[in-house]
Amino acid sequence: MDFPSRESLWGLGSAEYQVIAAFEDTVGSLVHELASAEAAGERLTTTTDAAERRLDASDGALPLHFEVLSEVTAEAFAFTSRLARLLWQQAAAYAVVGMTVLDRVVAGQAPLSLAELKPLFTEPALGDLIDLLQADAEQRYAARNDTVRELNREEHAQLVRSLDRVRAGAGRRGLDPDRALGVPLTDLDDDMHDPPWEDILKPIVRLAQQLPYEISAAIQGQRPIRARWTRGEMTSLRNIHRCPGRAATVVEGHLPDTGPARDPGDSLALTVQVCAVHTPPPKAWFAGLVVRPGTKPVLTSDCGLAVDYREPGQALRAHADLWLTPLTGLHLADHDGWPALLAAATAHLRTAYDAETDDHWNTVEMFLGQAAKFSSKGDLLPALAALGHAETATAVALAIEAQRTPGAAADGACDR
Prior knowledge:
With 416 residues, the protein is of the alpha+beta class. It has 13 helices and 5 strands. α1 (14-57) packs antiparallel against α8. The chain is elongated. The chain starts with 13 loop residues before the first helix and ends in a 12-residue tail after the last helix. Residues 223-228 and 408-416 have low confidence and may be disordered.
């Protein structure tokens, strides 16, 4: 399963996304390295056993081969143990970061800064991990259906039971069980017992790597944005076009003044980061807005990354004007609201662009269908997120069509 895209995690702050992506890369690499080390250890064990049998069956043979293999095997298992210990430390920290960010998203709080996240980068104390796992699953996984929510709740409960057994058994390792709550599990390692985290390693890795998808589900399944949105909050993050250039500057679009002087921050409607080739950017991107030099930093290297701060209805209108209506020929005025327009666009894609057999147009159709479904429930936040995916998928599909048809121009979303 691929790591969620930046667009599906658009509700995360830059620091949150970077930290989670870094932990995903780290834990994923350690999982593969550990599997490789375990396979090497098993192979060496088999070879060493065969050497021992040959030595036992021989008459006066030197034991050199068996002794060297035994030493190599011991070193391989020691390396595997160190890898497993390191994986536990990173996966436990990843799980804590993931649950902390997920709870922040669900609570509708402001994104966490790098300074706030850094204390979570190390292996958590046993008690801190238990406390996070005992949080209310009904609230944490509210965006999930009953079945998935119950599975997550039971997985957490099983981990808590396992960790509590480790706490109760701390006395065998020379530590008071209550004091064990204040230290990381690796502090309980000793040479007389198996590592205390050994049986919990796979479940904590599975939990840690699942949390980005839970965060994405929470972002997409939040309550209708119209009931939550206030001026100045981001409503969508999208790639407004495709370009291999590296973004170097940010351009802002502001709502025109329509009355008493307003605070410049209140008028901010759209920011787009662009490369040198697209500076100044096409006017169509900022239709109806006053263009000004940007004051915000470049978020990523992607030219065309757009952050929309407009009221949800305005943001939907911008999607329709910029790419959806040119692509389908359908207009909001001819339909009974956004759900009807998006449903009609989905049906249009199915026939006009052969979405049933073409994988790329099928992806566009899928995201448009999701947008229609969300908007019909009044959930404009996930509808906008789905439209952002559809816009990017459209750019890809048009670019591929241009390659298939020599001399054809890749118009629309991919060449604006």
